[in-house]
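Hi all, a correction to my earlier message: I attached the wrong file for Uracil-DNA glycosylase-like domain-containing protein. Here's the right sequence:
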Amino acid sequence: MLNVLHPVVTKDYPENKQGGVMVCGINFGYSEEDKSRDDSGSSLKVEPLSFFSDMAVNKTRFRDRLLTWLSSWGVDLATSSGSEGGLERSFFQTNWLNTQTNSVSSDGVISNDLLVKEAGGILDLMQDRKPKLIILVGSCLIEVLNDIRIRERVELILGERSGNAIIHRVDFPAMQGRKFKVFTQSFGNAKVIGLPHVQSRGLTNEYMARFDGVFKGVWV
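and the right structure:
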């Protein structure tokens, strides 16, 4: 095992320490509540770690919206302590960057170059835990995972690429304006699905529910 320092916000279980499901966002959110607390000098109450879908902890829009999407794709996870099983324990949550911002666009644009430059920690985590399914939340992340500058190490960890990521689109007449895409990709030892960021403007849960067949194609 590597001495991995990259942060994980879920509790460690045998099911997610090896061969689990990795949920990876871009970076750690920094809410207005966090800012107000820091400005006032108040201390943060540290939550106990638990399984990914435990509604008693990790109360973020990111997690809650992902649970809604997963449910619409046929993956209903237990949400109360004591009701979790191996499936719930197989999930672990992290972020590509160990930084905080109010949104994915605050404090300047998070560029692909930055994500490539700072990829060491997340790749160490992948190497250590060897997830069978990686859920990347933020369309830029699957592009970065395939960047030629880190491709050799990615393939050493995940196995050989079967080809470029496949782009999936759905027809949803009620959706006006911007259309969102989902990406899937297979490696020798893992499958990857790339989702839009949960904060993407105009993105609805009804739209994402249309991708149920895509998710079932990569579900392990």
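Sorry for the mix-up. Residues 30-44, 102-107 have pLDDT under 50 and may be disordered.
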